[in-house]
Amino acid sequence: MNAPKVLDPIASPEHAPFRDAARAGRFVIPVCRSCGKAHWYPRARCPFCFSGEIDWRDASGQGTVYSCSVTQRASPPHAIAYVTLAEGPSVLTSIVDSDLSRLKIGAAVEVVLTEVEDGMFFPFFRLKRTAG
Amino acid sequence: MSPRSSAYIVGAFEHPTRKAPDKSVAMLHAECAQGALADAGLSKDDVDGYFCAGDAHGMGPLAMVDYLNLRVRHVDSTETGGSSYIVHVAHAATAIATGKCNVALITLAGRPRSEGMATGTVPRVGSAAQPDVPWEFPAKPTTANMYGMCAMRHMHEFGTTSQQLAWVKVAASHHAQHNPHAMLRELVTVEDVVNSPMVADPLHRLDCCVISDGGGALVLTRPEVAKTLGRPLVGVIGAGEAVKGQLGGYVDLTFSGAVWSGQAAFAAAGVTPQDIKYASIYDSFTITVLMQLEDLGFCRKGEGGKFVADGNLIAGVGRLPVNTDGGGLCNNHPANRGGMTKVIEAVRQLRGEAHPKVQVANCDLALAHGTGGLLGSRHGSATLILERT
Question: Which of B129, B266, B281, B388 has the fewest CB atoms in 10 Å of its CB?
């Protein structure tokens, strides 16, 4: 018997617009057409005004680290973080492709859209280069 | 008899085991039930209300009610992680007050230690249908790193230090040295804590609770029955419960649901944090205690670091004795769920049955508070205020 899948597109129809956009290289976030507020994690119903009219809008992919925690003894070392998007909401994510000694609250990061399993995409983030 | 209490905790039992490879989880539940009923002077057949949470295997209360062969007319399997049992006490008191049951039994048991569970450092596999899972699981959230992020933000906002966090563990070790059942009985220093290996930055190994097998149980009953039992009367005079999540994405890690559950409990009891003589505060990690003390109003937000430092939580030394059994940090964290043992030690204190070295003098008002789930994403929060009559 196969173990139940943790990431399962069949169980996650609300994820479909995100992965479709991600496959095309676009990072989109849900914004309520009624109250205008962006939210995260994405739902088909606005968690603020309960409207079911959700637009998926292109986001900048830019953010700053709200908090983070590095597990050095993981192999390789693993960094979890909340990244506050330029558009407002914070995303629970992991910091990848980065020198983790530079990771701190307030650090500028950018999205790395990655296919994780079975067509499921996930927004990881990496530290922005300091220059420029 | 205080008119404020419609129900009394008359039985409390903490299983002495910390490692139970030869016992089933159901056996441990039954041993705890037997212990708490014996403590109360009641029998299995007196029980007409049963309460359990997700540690009890088998569709809410169904398997355990059948295993224990109870004849119940009220059940409640509210599941809010480690805070569940504190919620159950409140729900049991309400059920008794409204005539739904006369004798309520609450049990908890588990054996993560024998099962070799990496409780804090491996992502728990949720269901694919849990709505947050596709948006979070690939980030590998673990118990340790999700609490680590709370500590990191607290340090950033308020200047809290690892040394201040360490004082929570130091206090727990001072208490645990007197508890013969405690898993860790050795005194530790602030230096020991901050020099222990880093688990999830900024939390060190000694900032984390133990992984232990075991369990506990509580029995509540109505005042007329309680008065006949000859045990000290521990009344439930205030309770609050809350769930806090990510607030639609506008995440704020600086406070917990204790802000809401605590306020409700204090309002119901008509007392203030300054009136509390003893507090059991869920200590999954040192940061958990520090934040909850702030959120419950024992000190101002951001001043938890100063509040816990210099032995302020040590019985006989500080202003607020906390977790005098050694807590989850040193004594016991059965089934990875600390709410049950929080209530049990509060009951011991109110009865005057805590270890003499840690017993709070004239302890007539106590608080038990728990967090369940992950402080850094979504958690249950439950507060009880208990009074000895």
Answer: B129
Architecture of domain A13-127: Beta Barrel (2.40)
pLDDT, tens digit (0-9, with 9 covering 90-100), for A113-124:
999 988 899 999
User: Where are any strands of DSSP class E within chain B?
Assistant: 8-14, 49-51, 74-76, 103-110, 198-200, 203-204, 214-221, 234-244, 278-281, 365-373, 379-388
Nearest to B167 by CA among B310, B19, B38, B288: B310
The pLDDT tens digits for B64-100 are 999 999 999 999 999 999 999 999 999 999 999 999 9
Residues of A in contact with B377 (CB under 8 A): 92
Contact between chains at B201 and A72 (C-beta distance less than 8 A): yes
Whether B134 and A4 lie within 8 Å, measured CB to CB: no
The residue extents of the domains of chain B are 8-116+209-388
- How far does the CA of residue B78 sit from the closest CA of chain A (Å)? 24
Which distant-in-sequence residues (6+ apart) come within 8 Å of B294 by Cβ? B255, B300, B301, B302, B303, B304, B307
Find tokens 């600086």 and name the residue.
B254
Backbone angles phi, psi at B358, to 5 degrees: -125, 0
pTM (two decimals): 0.96
- Give me the residues paired with residue B101 across strands: none
- B27 contacts B253 by C-beta, under 8 angstroms: no
Token couple for B82? 């480690």
Instruction: List chain A residues with CB under 8 Å of B199.
Output: 71, 73
Q: How far is CA B351 from the centre of its chain?
A: 18
The highest-level CATH class for domain B8-116+209-388 is: alpha beta
Query: If residue A123 lies in a helix (H) or strand (E), which one and from where to where?
Result: strand A120-127
